[in-house]
């Protein structure tokens, strides 16, 4: 037991967290959100098998997520209406995965010959075609209404009916954990390593005996398997699959999650899925400008860091490992830098909120609630106030960022100094 | 026969509008290798600016100022947004423009609201120039046609005669050559990007009042423009022209002739009255498939000939 | 790797965030409105939410229900997404709401019907009623009918029936072209129109019947216009909405096609805004339960519209949101409790004085029966449409009213009722 | 007569209208070191690219151990036993030195596209990787990202990846370019060591290295081989001296 904890501590901890979470958050809304997070963790990890591990930017990976969802919903309905034999609901995600795999193998073969922009464009083409087909092949996709289903079919071993959301929560968490572990293992295999190699330098890969097409194809197919698994979980969670699940928007969501969380290390997509699903569920009730902030966050991350948020955390790993006391000298510059960022953000967000308020308001009312204060958005004062916060904030950012970067570089230099023999 | 000529003419009108949009995109690609996902968003900005300006001082000033503003915004985006990303490679650039498209749509909604705005064709041009098969062709549609032809010719001269044009030509066949241009490469990049965006802006000014000006116009038109430049061959002006006309004409023909898939299926013994998924296939017509066809061609083209019809290098 | 500490910090952050859930307040009857309040179609959802809040204010100003309880309308944003609809439903359950209102998007309405059905079966004693104000899929009150669902709008078939009734009254209509969107709604429009035209206006020849790929995928309508022109049609019957409607009209006007447009959604404020000056040139008709230029509107409604206009600077466009809230209030008072089942029973068969005459909630399928008015878009109407304070310069003028007997259709509903 | 390890028969290559390689015939014996020299632009790298499948051969045949490999894909040719290095460093920048070398070895130790083997548990594989790391002097850089290495370390890594496959024919493209004198000596020693019972082809500008290592030398000028012989005779060849050596070794 002790050995298990020592060797696989992270996984044991994740398992424990998974068991405990529903005891902390008991509301139906929270459980639904946790379920969604579980599904999207699997999907964004699958997406990152392409983007982060394999270097393939896809605008259409939701295709395999959505198609598997549709098949799962039809399968459940078939079981419920007795024209299909019974199949345990617990194992349906495997079925969804196989559907994803099937389509991934077919479409992957033609689209993975090249990476980069060609691959991105082909994926966009397939995504647009599939979206249009959801409206044309009505019997299967049922247009914009999608397919409804009922997950309460068949026998109920141990009283597990999958009626209450909590049952589905444990189902999703189980599969989420299994899929995450499986995808983690994949990164540690010859295939996983060569997938990274293809991302870094496809040309050289050909000269160490591997076909880049085969590796990409395999990565694509396996990734589609896990996307399909996530799609089946999605269908079970919502008991409904709609045409949104298949289109560009769903793929874009995964892209945002992966890139914001960080495509360069394994936990990045997990972080992204948790963060964005959480914010999407909660922030969109608070501010209309949520999508704008999401877009800006994405762009800022694309511009300034290739590793996403988790990359920002992990770039401090060597310092932590070598000597955490090195952080001492970084504290002050970091606090200043982060502090001025927050100040600038407060000012900018304030202005965005007022613009949004004025453009979407429904009455002549000009009193907006901004930062728990009532302000008159039509008067100059709050604008001046916001500008008065933004301007010094931005100025402070410009002054405090270089010392922040310096302190980091110095710490890294110190680490390198100690590592050298 | 007349239906054919008629459909081709209508396709020409629509195709030239697509060409106007695609020309800027293909120009940017040929110099910088960047596939600008947000290109249709600049088209949308052009339409909105034109709507705003024409409300104050009329359509013609709008036609001048809106593209100028869009061009300056585009140049600023290149200078302060795209350039820092350049070192991370083309995928990062594509990601950046993807995010940009998303943000522009949100900003447009923030400023002009979520419902369509009434951006109208100028009254003086909204009169029938001629009538054919019962359809009026307004002076404005002829103006659109003329404007797009003028843009094509101007671009052609620009690429063949100017220094920047020569650089663009060289860059197409030898992508590395631009790095050896010395100190002004940054400026050339910036203004080419701005110019490409301004072209999209012109298309927005001219097309926005015909297609309708609303926040989702970019996302519905954007992928089609990609289809045009990918099929035509990235970086090829001729290719963009041919592909745009091809898409426009194919769209019109498939609707005019409205062929059914049924005769083909009948060869395989499929009955007219069938149940289930086959029923959808039996009922398929080319008109119903028209919006899907461009993407089908896109995928086929990329699989069979990734450099497109007239392309000189792969995507 | 130092993932452990990282994950621990993350978990803490989430725990902190999730703990803030909305708390229940007593002594008011809370009604959840699930509509797109963000995203591309947010304008539609927000307008609906305004209507409900305005109607609730009226009820509350009259002293509320059950001797003093207020009706509180709570907006829940589904961003026009299926997942978010489900999420908001769960939130509504957490908040203990018994009444859910929705109408934008039949797909979301169907989700809610299914969700409510399952929820009420799995949680007896905590039932939820779904009050549908605009989702028009006929099946909701036919084969999909449910005791928990009430529709306060006319369904597609009823609207088509009203349009066909009016078409039958116009002897100048000889040849008719149908163009619809190729998805569930468009197809049900097509089916109803085929059936009802054959039955009620057999003299009209259908010269075209076409489905297009929906949701703004068609950029250029010229080829369709050319076909319509070639068919010699004098009238177009279409269920199109949104960009598909706007581009259709702009294309037709641009090509000088002077056919009459008979539509369900051609008169939506957002569409009329999109037509621009073409709105003055097109001969466009819509079917609604009211419009502000109809002569002989009840005095109460005229005052109400004026109040709405004063507050929101929008023309009062549809009456169903008002009567939904007023009828709910009346049903609660009649039942003497806010519990959903007695309220549902009270709603069954309830009548209300609507703008064109009495409307009634049919008990057998929970489909509101109502007269509908067909009207034409014109710049000569006395009272133009305002939206967000902007004058569109056009408005609707009545062509004719289809009475309740004309719009009333039989139902296939076999409703299962709770004991 | 013994079958040559690598044989070119009348190989031609054009870029557009320019003939870059003009009818080359060349046979490289097994278990020898063959050097290819010639002025810049003579087509040395192009021949490498033709042999290893990077470029398409327009005319002629290329044989490996008597088996035709003309216009096969690079990975097929590599699997058949030709491993090459690149003139411009061509490594996996975002992976560690250890991972880089291991990638060079995976296919040839029969892992193929396996996604069921844990790399960490493959003792033999990892031991051999460490071994190559030690032999190429990269052991102290084991976990450094390849992109962070110094230039000469990157050159060493380039060779290490090439050697990792254990192929019978090793083709090195300017392995010592940009190295200091000391580093060059180390590299030459390394090459000599690995060349035992292997066929080695080398393109090199450093004539000291060439004449030190090579058993046979071919001289390439304007896409044609003007001489191919043992080093002593190449040194004395008039044509070679006129065309090439005269200016460089004088």
Description:
- The complex is a heterotetramer of chains A (421), B (315), C (419) and D (250).
- Chain A has 421 residues and is an all-alpha fold.
- Chain A folds into two domains: 287 residues, no CATH class; 103 residues.
- Chain A contains 18 helices and four strands.
- In chain A, the strands form two sheets. In chain A, strands 1-2 form a two-stranded antiparallel ribbon.
- Chain B is mainly alpha-helical and 315 residues long.
- Chain B has one domain: Orthogonal Bundle (ABC transporter involved in vitamin B12 uptake, BtuC), CATH 1.10.3470.
- In chain C, helix 6 links the parallel strand 6 and strand 7.
- Chain C is globular, with a radius of gyration of 23 Å.
- In chain C, helix 3 packs parallel to helix 4, helix 5 runs parallel beside helix 6 and helix 8 packs parallel to helix 9.
- Chain C is 41% helix and 21% strand.
- Chain C is an alpha/beta fold and 419 residues long.
- At the A-C interface, helix 2, helix 3, helix 6, helix 13 and helix 15 of A face helix 1, helix 2, helix 3, helix 4 and helix 6 of C.
Question: Could you outline the blueprint of secondary structure elements for this entry?
Answer:
The complex is a heterotetramer of chains A (421), B (315), C (419) and D (250).
Chain A: H1 2-7, H2 9-24, H3 28-53, H4 62-80, H5 92-111, H6 116-136, H7 138-141, E1 147-148, H8 165-187, H9 190-200, H10 202-206, H11 212-238, E2 240-241, H12 248-261, H13 268-286, H14 290-304, H15 308-314, H16 317-322, H17 328-360, E3 367-370, E4 373-376, H18 380-419
Antiparallel strand pairs in A: 1-2, 3-4
Helix pairs in contact in A: 2-8, 3-8, 3-11, 3-12, 3-13, 4-5, 4-11, 5-11, 8-11, 9-11, 12-13, 12-15, 17-18
Chain B: H1 2-32, H2 39-57, H3 59-86, H4 90-112, E1 128-132, E2 135-138, H5 139-161, H6 163-173, H7 185-211, H8 217-232, H9 237-257, H10 262-267, H11 277-282, H12 286-289, H13 293-304
Antiparallel strand pairs in B: 1-2
Chain C: H1 3-18, E1 28-35, H2 42-61, E2 70-77, H3 82-95, E3 99-102, H4 106-122, E4 129-132, E5 149-151, H5 156-169, E6 175-181, H6 184-200, E7 205-212, H7 222-231, E8 235-238, H8 243-254, E9 260-263, H9 269-275, H10 278-281, E10 283-288, H11 299-312, H12 320-335, H13 340-347, E11 351-354, E12 357-361, E13 368-369, E14 372-378, E15 386-387, E16 390-391, E17 395-402, H14 404-407
Parallel strand pairs in C: 1-2, 1-3, 3-4, 4-5, 6-7, 6-8, 8-9, 9-10
Antiparallel strand pairs in C: 10-14, 11-12, 12-13, 14-17, 15-16
Helix pairs in contact in C: 2-12, 3-4, 5-6, 8-9, 12-13
